[in-house]
Specification:
The chain is α+β, with helices and mostly antiparallel strands. The chain is 27% helix and 25% strand. The strands form 3 sheets. It has a 5-stranded mixed β-sheet with strand order 7-6-10-8-9. A 3-stranded antiparallel β-sheet has the order 2-1-5.
């Protein structure tokens, strides 16, 4: 009876620690708690007191990853908390008291934008929530001297598989205030093209 009580207390303490760890990661890692995991994201799965089941995994293009014992787990489109709950649920088949699970998003690879052409540092950049077009250009080091800043395109994935959108942006309009809505909020996988 005493052993059962101790194990029960240990499991509750582990769950509290797991919840705190997930909360700290959401705040410190610049990911909100409602961040939806996507393909190519790198996740660290920690199973309390079980190193053999704890793994660092990459979400496959099909939106899943695999863990020993429980197999495939759906991750894409879910929050870290939802995936953690799904893992715990799968462990119920194998454990009377499922182990405490924590999940850390180590790399949010599906939350990127691409900046090509007339900027000092073209490449891919992690998209933080609320990043505007101008902030992204500043991240890339600003325009090069020969950049065609009034012929910029932002290529954006269409919703639900619809064809790609091409948004035209004129830097001159943004800084003059003529078209205040040109300084758009960027979305994951946007590609900014600045001709030279």
């Amino acid at each position: 009876m005493l052993l059962f009580s101790l194990l029960s207390c240990s499991n509750r303490a582990a769950q509290r620690m797991s919840a705190q760890l997930a909360s700290d990661t959401a705040q410190d890692g610049n990911l909100s708690q409602d961040y939806q995991i996507g393909a190519e994201d790198v996740l660290e799965i920690l199973i309390w007191k079980n190193e053999a089941l704890s793994k660092v995994v990459t979400v496959r293009p099909d939106g899943k990853f695999s863990l020993p014992l429980i197999g495939d787990v759906q991750a894409a489109g879910l929050t870290a908390e939802q995936v953690k709950d799904a893992i715990s649920e799968k462990f119920k088949e194998y454990y009377q008291d499922p182990p405490a699970v924590s999940l850390i998003v180590q790399q949010a690879k599906n939350q990127v934008i691409y900046i090509l052409g007339g900027v000092k540092n073209p490449g891919s950049y992690v998209l933080k929530h609320g990043t505007t077009f101008l902030q992204a250009i500043a991240q890339a080091g600003g325009f090069t001297p020969f950049a065609s800043t009034n012929n910029i395109l932002v290529l954006r994935r269409g919703e639900n598989g619809n064809k790609e959108l091409a948004l035209k942006i004129r830097y001159k309009d943004i800084i003059s205030g003529n078209h205040g809505d040109s300084n758009i909020l960027l979305r994951p996988m946007d590609t900014i093209i600045i001709p030279n």
